[in-house]
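Our working data are protein records whose layout never changes between entries. The record below serves as our worked example for the rest of this section:
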Amino acid sequence: MPVVVHWGADLGGLGRHALEALADSQVPAVTASSPDVPVRATLLPLAADGWPGLPGLAGWRPAAPDDGAARRPAPRQVRTTSDGGTVTVLLADPAAGLEVAVRLTLHAQGVLESTTTVTNRGTTPYVLDRVVSTLPLPARATEVLDLSGRWAGERRPQRAPLRDGLWERGTRHGRPGHDAPFATVAGTPGFGFRSGEVWGVHHAWSGDTSVRVERLASGHAVVGAGELWGPGDVVVGPGETYTSPRTLAGWSDAGLDGLSERFHAWVRARPGRATRPRPVTLNTWEAVYFEHDLDRLRALADAAARVGVERFVLDDGWFRGRRDDRRGLGDWTVDEAVWPDGLHPLVQHVTGLGMEFGLWVEPEMVNADSDVARRHPAWVLRATPGREPLPWRYQQALDLAHPDAYAHVRDAVVALLDEYPITYLKWDQNRDVLDAPSRGQVLATRRLMDELRERFPALEIESCSSGGGKVDLDVLDRADRVWASDTNDALERQAVQRWTGLLVPPELVGTHVGDARSHTTGRTHDLSLRLVTALFGHSGIEADLTRATPEDVEAVARWVRLVKELRPLVATGTTVRADTADECWVHGIVGPGAQEAVYAVVTRAASSAAVPPALLLPGLDPRGTYRVERVDLATPPLVVGDAPPPWWASGAVELPGAALAEVGLPLPPLAPEQGVLLRVTRSGGA
C-alpha cells in the first residue's frame, strides 16, 4: 500500500536516485509488541496493513454478511501512472471483489487534490460505510485548529493540543452547515496567521462531511476527510463505481496567511471564474423584507443608482402568495396580486438606471402551504413514505433527485430567466436535510446549477444557505460568490469574514453595509465601521438608503467610488492578518509586487493598556518605502484621549516596509467598535 513520504517544504530538484534513497530511508523501525513489518500511515490505512486506527475504507456485502474479505478489504497496488502533476495509484483486492483508484494532483499553487474511486468487481452489491482521503502528519504538528459556529455567527475558530486518539468532526445537515469544520489545520506549537508551520485540509463537498485528525500511541498521526453516510446510504452495484468528493490539502511555513495565499491562488485559477470587476450590489432584504411595493422599490433603486450601485437584487417575497416565510415557497411564479404587470415595471426601471437586475430563489425547498406541495406531496423528500418530516422554518426539502420535481424547478427558473434580463440569482437553502439521505439532493443541485449556467452563460449565482450554511470550495465551482453570514452586524462580520478568508478569496465573499441597528443582533454601529467592514470583499449595500440622512448617503457614495477604485486590488491581492490581541484586529490586502495595500484596524473592545500596542502592517516589501494614509470614510474614529500620536494627527506618514512590519506605528487609544482604513502606496525602492 503506497505511502506519502513527505508533504511540506520544497526539497529541491531531487533526481530519481535521490528520491529512491529518500523513500528507502523513511521506512520506520519495527517496534516491540507490534506487527513484524513496519506500520505506516498509508494512502488508505487498513487493519490488513497493521493500522489500528480508523480505516480509510470500510464496507460489506449484504448478500454475504460473514464475508471477512469484504468487511476487511486488503487492496494491493496493481500499477501507478503519472501525468504531469497527477499520480494515480490503482489497487485491487480480488478476494473482496474491489478495485480502488487513488488520484493525487499537485496544483501549481501548492494545493494537493485527492480523490478515491471504488469499483465493485463482484457479482453482488457492495455497501460502502467509509471512504476517507488520508495524509500523514509529522510529529512536530502538535496543535489542531478547526472552525465551528451557528446561524449569524459562522466560522468561529477553536484549537486544542493534538493528543492520542481521534478528533472527528461530522456535519449532518445535508449541507456543510453553520458549524462546518471548513478547514482543519494541524501545526507547530503556537502557529498563527504570520508564523508557524501548518498543514491544512478542506473537504470540497456541499453535503454531509467527516473530517478527522488521529494520533496513535505509536506516534503515527493522520488527517483525512470523506463523506458522512448513514447505514446503507451508498450501495455500489456490480460494475458500478463511487468517486469521492475532492479533499484539498495545503502546507505553509508562514502560518495561516501562507496557507490562505495558496488556496486563494488555487480558487482564482479555477475554470469559469468571472473576470470582470465585481458589481457593487444592493440587496433589498433588510430594506423592505416581504413588503414589496413598486413605488417603494423604485425609490430604493433610484437611491441605489445615485450612490453608484451597479446591481439591484430583489430578495424574497416576489412570488405567488409569499407574504411571509410560511407560504408560497416552491411556486416560482410572479405574484399577480402584488405584481399585476409582472416584474417588468421594476426590471425596466432598474435597467433604465443602468443597473443589472438580480433575483432571490430557493429552488431546493418548498412550503407545505404552496400549490406545488399540495399537488405533488410525493415530491417532498422523505426517508419513509407517509411519514411527514419535521418542519424547519415552515418548509421541507423538495426532492430534486425526483425527475419530475427536478424538471418542475428547472423549467420554472428557466422561464424566469427567459422572460426577464436576470443576470444574477441569489440561491438560498434555508433548511437542513436531516430526514433522508442527502447525497442525491446535493448531486441534483449541482446538476441544476450546471444546467442553468450552460444555458445562460452570463448568469452569475450566489451561494446563500440561511447565510453561511453552504460555504465550501465545491459550490464555488458553480457559484460566483458566497454569502458568508446572514448577519450584517459589522463586529460579527469582522469575525466571519476573517475566518471565511482562510480559504475563500475576498472578492468571492459578499460584504454588505447594513443599517445602523443590526437586524440580527440589535447592536448599533457607526457608519465608518460598517463601511470599513464591507470594503474587504464583494461589496454591497443592504441598508435602506431612502431613509438615510443626506450626510450618510454622501458618505456611502464616496465609499462606492473607493470600492470601485480598490476592487482590482481586492480581486488580485494577498490577504494578510496581523497576529494581535482580540481587542484590536488588523487585516489587509497587499497588491501584486507590494506596490499598494489597504488595511483595516478594528477595535473590538477597549484596550487593556492605557497606551495601545504599536500597529504592525504585515506583507509589505521590507526594502520599499511606503506612504501610509488614514482614510475617514464617514465620521473620524472616536479617540479616547487628549492628544493622538503626531502621524495620526497629520493623517499620513512615510516609512520603510521593514519598519512598518517590525516596529509599527503608535495608535491612539481608540474607543471600542471603531474601524480605521489605511491606504498604503509605495513611494520608493530599496
